[in-house]
Amino acid sequence: MNENEDEPKDFIKLNYEKLSTDEVSELVISPCCGAVSLFIGTTRNNFEGKKVIHLEYEAYSPMAEAEIKKICRDVRQKWPSVKHIAVHHRLGLVPVTEASVIVAVSSPHRVASLEAVQYCINTLKATVPIWKKEIYEEAYSWKENKECFWADVEK
């Protein structure tokens, strides 16, 4: 194997197609890593007693991708042993049980990859301009992400 073939890489993708956990996990696998950690966020069928039919996501893609790149840089500073990072987020309609977001991180040992995955998804939800609309049986609602930094702005 050429030394450069396994340089640390970030794989960021926003698209309207069904996400694949196999595809995302394969992106981060490395022969020098003993851990691949995944977070898969899926559409559930209920929220606060209402039946959810599906979710719809919108994003300002250039800014969202730039913010995700910042998250990847932060991960590499906090966990220098992290090898590869993949963040794939689906846009548009996401039916119940399907993945909205998949985050994968590889590292030589599990602690770094597990902590990095948690940091990635929490920071993504707090800083990345991706908006979620929940479609219920008889209504819909744009959801404010209570974790996002702009939700705390004084009104």
Mind explaining what this structure looks like?
There is one protein chain. The protein is α+β, with helices and mostly antiparallel strands. The chain has a single domain (9-136), classed as Alpha-Beta Complex (Aldehyde Oxidoreductase, domain 3). 28% of the residues lie in helices and 37% in strands. It is built from three helices and nine strands. It has helices at 21-28, 61-78, 110-127; strands spanning 9-15, 35-42, 46-47, 50-59, 84-90, 92-95, 99-107, 130-136, 140-143. Helix 2 (61-78) runs antiparallel to helix 3. The radius of gyration is 16 Å and the shape is elongated.
Q: Which range best describes the helical content: under 10%, 10-25%, 25-40%, 40-55%, 55-70% or over 70%?
A: 25-40%
Query: Total number of helical segments?
Result: 3
Q: How would you classify the helix and strand content by structural class? A: alpha+beta
How can the largest sheet be summarized?
A: 5 strands, antiparallel
| Chain-averaged pLDDT | 90
The CA-CA distance between the termini, in Å, is: 56 Å
> What's the CATH topology label?
Aldehyde Oxidoreductase, domain 3
Strand content: 35-45%
The top level CATH class name = Alpha Beta
Q: Tell me the overall shape.
A: elongated
Query: How many distinct folded domains?
Result: 1
Low-confidence stretches: none
Strands, total number: 9
Architecture in CATH? Alpha-Beta Complex
CATH H-level name... which superfamily?
A: Molybdopterin biosynthesis MoaE subunit
Rg result = 16 Å
Order of helices and strands: EHEEEHEEEHEE
